[in-house]
TrEMBL record:
Pfam families per the UniProt record, alphabetical: Hydrolase
PANTHER family according to UniProt: 2-DEOXYGLUCOSE-6-PHOSPHATE PHOSPHATASE 2 (PTHR18901), PSEUDOURIDINE-5'-PHOSPHATASE (PTHR18901:SF38)
InterPro entries to which the protein is assigned, alphabetical: HAD-like_sf, HAD-SF_hydro_IA, HAD_sf, PGP-like_dom2
Superkingdom in the source lineage: Bacteria
SUPFAM superfamilies: HAD-like
Organism encoding this protein: Cellulomonas wangleii
CDD domains referenced in this protein's UniProt entry, alphabetically: HAD_BPGM-like
Protein name: HAD family phosphatase
Gene3D superfamilies per UniProt: HAD superfamily/HAD-like (3.40.50.1000), Putative phosphatase, domain 2 (1.10.150.240)
Amino acid sequence: MDGTLIDTEPYWMAAEIELVEAHGGVWTPQDAVAMIGSSMDVSAGLLQAAGVALDVAEIADALNTAVRAAVAAGIPWQPGAQEVLRALHSAGVPQALVTSSFGVLATPFADAVGLFDVVVSGDTVTRPKPHPEPYLAAARALGVDVAACVAFEDSRSGLASAVASGARVVAVDSHVALDPPAGVSRASSLLHVDLDVIARIAAGETLHLRDAD
């Protein structure tokens, strides 16, 4: 969700900086980028190490509240994301939203979009990304073989999760420079992705979709 479909990473970064500074610490944009895609437990631990004197639940509540308020002003779609989701839905392709964000953010977004058959949020799994459990849970909920799925990811932990699950994977350039392993497709933007591209990747092709293509 965050970074791949909607550009909420600046909201998370701003919330993290505000929280750390409120507790007398320092949190740089580089710190924020390094934490992209991390589970809430990992993120909270890093923020605590930076001086935030709150427990994990309190940190999660503070961050989720700030980001939810920002998103409520309007969904900040990434280029091409909404069009791809609508094309898949029109073609009858089942879709799962698999995100490290908690349900307090993922569920309202999914409800507003109305195109997802399944939502797997970070607080509904025992082992979040980079473990494959989120993607395996999504495939089970969809009733499909995970090997027949195509996963889109923009973070290192998400990429590791999707690859380990056995799905076909597309690394989407966003706020983090990714170095995907062999066999992983890559797209500079979802503007390069359509139904034909997804079908080719699902069939086993590895594609590199760049702005110059």
